[in-house]
Write a structure and sequence with these properties.
Structural class: mainly beta
Helix content: under 10%
Largest sheet: 7 strands, mixed
Shape: globular
Number of helices: 1
Distance between the termini: 40 Å
Strand content: over 45%
Number of strands: 11
Oligomer: single chain
Radius of gyration: 13 Å
């Protein structure tokens, strides 16, 4: 089974930046998609950004507003989410996820999940 471990969350003031990291283990060639999601207690998990099948990226424009960048370092088996110009509305638990097959921003279609890392943005 693929294992994902997020890190890099924390507390930051409005306008600050954070970089989230997701260490991936148990990777196989069948792993085709990976992405970041976030969730506020009592709300549905929301897709933030994902890699497509061929290395392109898809962003949830309504969520990130052009402020976030997803990337990966295959040599380290690590996926990143660079978050700039953070706002209080970005406060959430952020999760890294992976799946085999087609990419999607729909959280329910991802089969592998990390434990999450908390991001808190204060005003």
């Amino acid at each position: 089974q693929v294992q994902l471990v997020e890190s890099g969350g924390g507390s930051v003031q409005t306008g600050g930046s954070l970089r989230l990291s997701c260490a991936v283990s148990g990777y196989t060639d069948g792993w085709m998609s990976a992405g970041w999601f976030r969730q506020v207690p009592g709300k549905e998990r929301e897709g933030v950004a994902v890699f497509d099948t061929y290395g392109g990226v898809t962003y949830n424009s309504d969520s990130v507003k052009g402020r976030f960048t997803i990337s990966r370092d295959n040599s380290k088996n690590t996926v990143y989410l660079q978050m700039n110009s953070l706002e209080p509305e970005d406060t959430a638990m952020y999760y890294c996820a992976a799946k085999k097959g087609e990419p999607t921003l729909e959280a329910g279609r991802f089969g592998y999940w990390g434990q999450g890392t908390q991001v808190t943005v204060s005003s």
